[in-house]
Amino acid sequence: MLKHDYMQVSQDQPIYSEAPLQLLLFVDGRPKSRQQVQRIRAYLKELRIEYNFELQIIDVGEQPYLAEHFKLVATPALVKIQPEPRQVIAGSNIIAQLKDWWPRWQVAVDTYLKLQEDLPEQIDDNSGVSSPQSTIHSVAFSAELIKLSDEVFRLKQEKEKLQEHLLFKDRVIAMLAHDIRNPLTAAAIAIETLQSNYNIDIGAFKRLKPAMAAHLLKQARNQTKTIDRMIADLLQVGRSYDTSIPIVPQKMEIGEICFDVLAELRDRYIAKSQQIETDIPQDLPKIYADPERVRQVLINLLDNAIKYTPEGGKITIAGLHRTTQKVQITIGDTGPGIPLENRTRIFEHHYRLQRDQAIDGYGIGLCLCQRIIQSHYGQIWVDSAPNGGAWFHFTLPVYPS
C-alpha cells in the first residue's frame, strides 16, 4: 500500500483527510537522493503549517508500476493529483519549482472549492452526476489495479511457458518413441539370428562363422546401449525444464559411424534391390560430436532414403571437409524429392507432405534431426539431387587439432 505522511503535529489526524490539495512524493533508495528528499519533506512541512494538504510518500523500488502509471522519468518527483489537472515536478530543483507553483496551486484549490460549493445546485439543475475527481483514494485503487494487471500478465506468461514446455515434452517423447524402433528392430534381428543358429547340444553356432557371430553380438550390444540412452533421454525430458537436446560430445570418426549405420540397415535396402554409393574420404577430419546422436540423425535420414527410394534406385552418402571448422555429410536418394516450397517446413514437428499422408515418415524424425544438429551448432537442410530425388545435408564441428 501507499505510505502516508501528513506532516501533522496532531497524531489524531484521520488517515484519509481528503484535503483539497493532494500530493504524491516519489522517492527511491539511492543514497545521493536521500538528502534532497529530506530537504523537500522539510520544506513541505513548513508549508503544511500554513496550508492544509495531504501528502503520501511512494517508494518507486517497492511500487514501480505507479511510477509507470504517472510516466515519471526521474526521482524524486512531486505529483499534484488534486485539484486537477495533474502536474509533475521533477529534477534537482524541485523546491525552487515548488516555490514558483505554490501560489498558483492555492488559487487552483480556492477555485476548486468554489466549484464544489456550486456543484449541488448544478446537479439539481441538470439532474446529472458530476465526474469523479482524481484523489489519493483513486490513486491507491489504481495502484492495486496496476499491480493485479501485472500479476495477471506474469501468470499468463508463466502459463504460456508451461504450455510450451509440455508441448515440447510431448514432441520429444514422440520423437524418441518413434526412433527407438530402429535400434530395437536391429537388436532383435541380431539376437534372433544368433539364437536360430546356435546348437545347444554342441555349444556352438551351426552356420555362423566366429567373426559373424562376434559382429552380431557387437551389434546387439550397441543397439541395446542406444535404446538405454533413449530411455534415459525420455526420463530426463520428463523431469527437466530444459528444451534443448542433451549431448555428450567427444572426438570421433564420422566415417566409421556412417558405415556402421549402413550395415545396420543392410537388410532393408537389399530387400528393395537398392544400390548404395559411398564417398567418405579417408582423410576426413575427426569431428567433435555425440556419437549416439549422430547415429540417430544418420539412421533417420537413411531410413527415409530407403523408404522413399523405389526398388532398384540409388542412395548416396558422402562426406566433405567443407571448411577448417565444419564437416558436411550428404545423404541423397532417387525418390520423389521435396518440393521447393516445403523444404523449410519439412523439419517442423509432424509436418507431412500431402502426397505422403499414407506413408510413415517425414513426420517426427526430421524434427529430431534438426534439434540434434542445432545442439551441435551445426545446420541441416535439403535440396534437389542432380538426378532427381532429395539430398539432405548437415554439418558438424571439426575436432580442434
Order of helices and strands: EEHEHEEHHHEEHEHHEEHEEHEE
Biggest beta-sheet profile: 5 strands, mixed
Strand order of the largest sheet: 1-3-2-4-5
Helix content: 40-55%
Distance between the termini: 63 Å
Oligomer: single chain
Radius of gyration: 38 Å
What's the overall average pLDDT, rounded?
79
The number of helices is 10
The number of E-state strands comes to 14
Beta percentage is 15-25%
Shape: rod-shaped
Structural class: alpha+beta
Which consecutive residue ranges, at least 5 long each, have pLDDT under 50? 1-17, 128-132, 350-363
Structure description:
By secondary structure, this protein is an alpha+beta fold. It contains ten helices and 14 strands. The strands form four sheets. It has a five-stranded mixed sheet with strand order 1-3-2-4-5. The chain has a five-stranded mixed sheet with strand order 9-11-12-14-13. The longest helix is centred in the middle third of the chain and has 44 residues, at 136-179. It is rod-shaped and about 115 Å long.
Outline of this structure?
This protein is α+β, with helices and mostly antiparallel strands.
List the helices and strands and how they pair.
Blueprint: E1 3-4, E2 22-27, H1 31-50, E3 54-59, H2 64-69, E4 77-82, E5 87-90, H3 94-126, H4 136-179, H5 181-196, E6 198-199, E7 204-205, H6 210-239, E8 250-252, H7 254-264, H8 266-271, E9 275-279, E10 287-289, H9 291-308, E11 314-320, E12 326-332, H10 365-375, E13 380-384, E14 390-397
Parallel strand pairs: 2-3, 9-11
Antiparallel strand pairs: 1-3, 2-4, 4-5, 6-7, 8-10, 11-12, 12-14, 13-14
Helix pairs in contact: 4-6, 5-6, 7-9, 9-10
